[in-house]
Design brief:
The protein starts with a helix and ends with a helix. By secondary structure, the protein is mostly helical. Helices cover 74% and strands 0% of the residues.
C-alpha cells in the first residue's frame, strides 16, 4: 500500500475531511489533496505530525510493503521503547544530580 492510499485510509478511519486534516497539520486542503493523489509528499516535520495524529509509525507511513494494521503494533512497541529510553535518561539525570 502506497503512502497516499494509507493517508486516505487513516483520514477516513478518523472521520476527517481533507480540510479538517489540513487544519490539524497547518497546511491547505489542496496540499492534503496532492498527498492523497500521489502528486507530492509531506515534509519531514509534517510526517511526524501525521504519525502522531494517527498513532502510526513513520515506517508504517513510508514502507510500501507493510499494511497499516501490522504496523500499528510496531508503533505501539516503538512508543513503549522510546518511553523506556526516556525513563532511563531521567534516572541517569537524577542520579547525576545526587
Amino acid at each position: 500500500m502506497e503512502f497516499n492510499e494509507k493517508l486516505v485510509l487513516l483520514r477516513r478511519e478518523n472521520h476527517l475531511t481533507q480540510a479538517q486534516l489540513a487544519a490539524n497539520l497547518g497546511v491547505t486542503r489542496q496540499t492534503v489533496y496532492k498527498w492523497e493523489t500521489g502528486q507530492s509528499y509531506p515534509e519531514a516535520m509534517t510526517l511526524f505530525a501525521i504519525r502522531n495524529l494517527f498513532k502510526v509509525s513513520t515506517d508504517c507511513l513510508l514502507d510500501n510493503t507493510a499494511s497499516l494494521p501490522e504496523r500499528r503494533e510496531l508503533f505501539t512497541m516503538a512508543s513503549q521503547e522510546e518511553k523506556g529510553e526516556e525513563s532511563q535518561e531521567k534516572r541517569k539525570l537524577v542520579e547525576a544530580k545526587e
